[in-house]
Amino acid sequence: xxxxxxxxxxxxxxxxxxxxxxxxxxxxxxxxxxxxxxxxxxxxxxxxxxxxxxxxxxxxxxxxxxxxxxxxxxxxxxxxxxxxxxxxxxxxxxxxxxxxxxxxxxxxxxxxxxxxxxxxxxxxxxxxxxxxxxxxxxxxxxxxxxxxxxxxxxxxxxxxxxxxxxxxxxxxxxxxxxxxxxxxxxxxxxxxxxxxxxxxxxxxxxxxxxxxxxxxxxxxxxxxxxxxxxxxxxxxxxxxxxxxxxxxxxxxxxxxxxxxxx
Length: 262
Fold this sequence. Notes:
Mean pLDDT: 95
Order of helices and strands: EEEEHEEHEEHHEEEEHHHH
Number of helices: 8
Low-confidence stretches: none
């Protein structure tokens, strides 16, 4: 096998993630790389390139593989986390031409509709990020029709100060922030033009290293609109519904609790 025009001298399978296999490979020029195989990684590569810093560099993308630099993980320190928060704030400030993206997206093994919608962010978020997965979870028997109505009611009463589209990662849970070489790197995005509070709400949902230090450094760099913490459940509806679709009813109560908190 050849990657980047070079022969692979050693390759070790690291395991699986969804339908993909993950590999650590050594090339004949001495470099080591991380390789994902077994899927269409076009959207992921597009997202990493579009986000730019602080995302990891795309070395190669093909029909069924993605090649990234190998970054040995380190324990995050508070200064590393604060620097990453400032870099994420800068990334958000670079903005996007619209809500959505210029390519069809995916999140894990699920499709992600990045096409535009009428209205502002609230309408776009409801039509492209929340309702499709609520209906999918209902069709898979995870949610009831009553559960979906609760989600619809939450969207109807939601309040969210409008902002111009930010350049967001879209799946920014702690596992997608890799600390290495003294800094944080963003990996595995569902990148699009969205609301910046979405990335922060995702970090809060599953936690991350020195979370409060991250949030404080972010807010100092790019102050958030008043009441953003109260809006976290609104932004968590999408990832919780995605988890309902992927992993079943174990996420139903958390999703309903978020909907009722909106």
